[in-house]
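Worked problem 6 (solution included).
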Amino acid sequence: MVDAPKPFWQTLRFILSNLIVLSYFLVRVTPESRVLDGIVFTLDTFLIPMFVFIAAYLTQDISLKEIKKAMIPAIITCSGFQLINTIPAIIAGEFSLLKFFIEPLDGVWFIIAVPLWQGFSKMHAELRHHPVITMIIFSIIGFTAFFYGLPYSGLFSIVAYFPIFFLGRRITHEAIHRWRSAPIYFPLLLLAIGLASAYFGFIHYPHPLSFRTLYHLPLQEAIIYYLLFMSLLGMFGMVIIYGIRYLAFLESVAPKALGVYLIHPIICVIVLTALAHSQIALTLPVALFLTLVTIVVAVGLASIFPFNWLLAPKISHEEYESA
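Solution. The predicted structure is:
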């Protein structure tokens, strides 16, 4: 029997959060570069899906009672950071109450999505008996949400990414252990195939595609690229899981992964506004420096009130505790 949680998962989540910050700045670097476009494309392909996969994998044994207790804190966290990320729009006089509720900013939808996914999976446990058929059905529903729903509301991300959550719940700890013990040429081969597929599949597009921009394509083309994205996600994800290792020097900051994920958008807005006023070009070296600064500030803010409370709200009502 293989134990479930391993310290490297915490390390991986922290690294993924940092890469999200890096991607935020890289996509705005001038002058534009095909190499940077390729890096941004690769990051966009696996960053959020990997968060979804990890959330599913590490909570396979969660109970319905635990899911119910997580709902109110998730709503508080989601609403709090939605409001914080809306501050620039409020200052600019561009705030819309409708958009506040239907257009989650900078990934806050993920916070409320996790307990919803967990609850749905628990209440429909029979789906695990037909994993292949179920995965195909969920993938069709996921594509439909990406293609038809996402242009109208970011909340459709909750439906769109569910197939990856379902996959994360189906992968056993033994399978992860066997894969991480496999000869190194297997992940190297997967990486080579993935990079070649990404290069030849997307080089003719002037701008990087992603799951979230599929609706810009004709339907038939979008279906093909959705399948390619899912394949690339599988390959890149397996390579990442194989290669990641527990890093002791990150032990104290790795638990702040969620803080970096949720706090970085408002920091980035402030940084980019200051950059624009100072008329400093966002070159690659500047982007790398600002990424580091943003991560350090986000980790610091995640340790103090009110951010530390918003990241893990403590509900002490007796009525709630007995739910």
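Discussion: The chain has one domain: 9-311.
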